[in-house]
Amino acid sequence: MHLLLAALTALTVVAATADGAVRAITARPAGIAAERTRDAALLAVAATAASGVALLVTGHRPLEWLHMVYTALAVGLVPVADNAGAALRSDRARALARVGGGLVCLVVIARLFQTG
To answer: Which sequence spans correspond to the domains of the chain?
Structure first.
């Protein structure tokens, strides 16, 4: 279940990143799709983290404890990128902040798969 949720998380982060890329190319402001992809990514990461906590409680351990640090990073990267981008002046710059946060989050998720 945890692995399935992790794969779903990766897909939602890809969707959020793709939304940012489309907005960066077209210079459109964030709309309902940006909000929904951010919320979906955050919900998927939180569900995956919760299932990981359940695994810990039942005695299962990750291969590396660094897995926990990567989890904390993954939880906040897309929302933090959006919040950091809010101070930027152009729609394109805000969208690029989302793309950057999404790409970093995908790298972190890849590392989570390696340390799991």
So the answer is: 2-115
